[in-house]
Specification:
globular, two-stranded antiparallel sheet, single chain, 6 strands, 4-stranded antiparallel sheet
């Protein structure tokens, strides 16, 4: 599958089956994260793999909307970035999440990016909630969590005809 095919096929999956993510699949997804570019190659991101059902359940309650799907995932990868290493933690984390999302698609593993940064649960910052669940130091920031699992419920791929080229502007 070429890169454009992967990008067209990449869709968010919110329902997962019981089939386990293999070690090989997980290793490739994490390798993609580690290959993601970062500003000045500072590499501020760390990747916390969550497998315990009870922890996935807690993470699924970390924000008011859109995190419920984590409890049904086989695994989740929490991307944390060290603000003492780089002030580009948000951008660097986002690129790593994207690389993992694309690799999951290549491997036919369902995935969904759950945003944590700038979200809340009943007035409490979602980053604080995740930090508390996973016992993460305050100088780490959390952009998002990638939920992973095999699924029969992956939406159909986009088509090239779906690309809205009206958003491209050439300056002359």
């Amino acid at each position: 599958m070429g890169l454009m095919d992967v990008m067209l096929k990449r869709r968010s999956t919110r329902k997962f089956g019981d089939e386990q993510i293999t070690k090989e699949e997980l290793d490739k997804i994490l390798q993609a994260a580690l290959l993601a570019p970062t500003s000045m190659n500072r590499k501020p991101c760390n990747f916390m793999v969550v497998e315990r059902a009870e922890t996935l359940e807690k993470l699924s309650k970390s924000k008011n909307h859109g995190a419920d799907l984590i409890k049904g995932a086989n695994k989740a990868i929490v991307v944390i970035a060290d603000t003492m290493i780089a002030d580009t933690w948000c951008e660097d984390s986002s690129i790593a999440l994207t690389y993992m999302h694309l690799m999951a698609t290549e491997l036919e593993v369902g995935s969904c990016w759950v945003q944590i940064h700038l979200r809340s649960k009943d007035g409490i910052d979602s980053e604080e909630i995740v930090r508390d669940i996973l016992k993460i130091d305050n100088h780490y920031r959390i952009v998002g969590i990638l939920a992973l699992g095999h699924s029969e419920d992956i939406p159909k791929p986009h088509k090239e005809a779906d690309i809205d080229k009206s958003r491209i502007h050439f300056l002359v």
